[in-house]
């Protein structure tokens, strides 16, 4: 974990009205070569195990977010209480 910058600004990915310690996913965006650097690091961890950090890059993170928004991963949560499928464009 020595290659993880110690001064990252971690953001908790949880609903605004969420209370308690979670566990929640937290994200931190590292510095790259400019504001729009697709290879800039993105760090992901869970609040219950902050010492375990997964690293990807901005390009892959953006592709993942677009996939979630498009419903590409909805099949992973089918049958989970409260799940509503992403509306597909017609």
What does this 3D model show about the protein?
- With 90 residues, the chain is an alpha+beta fold.
- It contains 1 helix and 4 strands.
- It has one domain (11-76).
- It has one helix at residues 58-69; strands at 11-13, 25-29, 41-46, 49-57.
- It has a 4-stranded antiparallel sheet.
- This is DUF397 domain-containing protein.
Secondary structure: elements and pairs:
Layout (H helix, E strand, L loop, with lengths): L10 E3 L11 E5 L11 E6 L2 E9 H12 L21
Antiparallel strand pairs: 1-2, 2-3, 3-4
Protein name: DUF397 domain-containing protein
Organism: Streptomyces graminofaciens
Give the beta-strand count.
Answer: 4
Main β-sheet description:
4 strands, antiparallel
Number of helical stretches of at least 4 residues: 1
The radius of gyration computed from the alpha-carbon positions, rounded to a whole number of angstroms, is 15 Å
């Amino acid at each position: 974990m020595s290659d993880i910058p110690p001064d990252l600004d971690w953001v908790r990915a949880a609903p605004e009205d969420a209370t308690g310690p979670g566990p929640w996913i937290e994200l931190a965006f590292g510095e790259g070569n400019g504001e729009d650097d697709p290879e800039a690091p993105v760090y992901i961890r869970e609040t219950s195990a902050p010492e375990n950090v997964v690293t990807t890059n901005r390009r892959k993170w953006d592709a993942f977010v677009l996939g979630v928004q498009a419903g590409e991963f909805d099949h992973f949560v089918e049958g989970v209480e409260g799940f509503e499928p992403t509306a597909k464009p017609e």
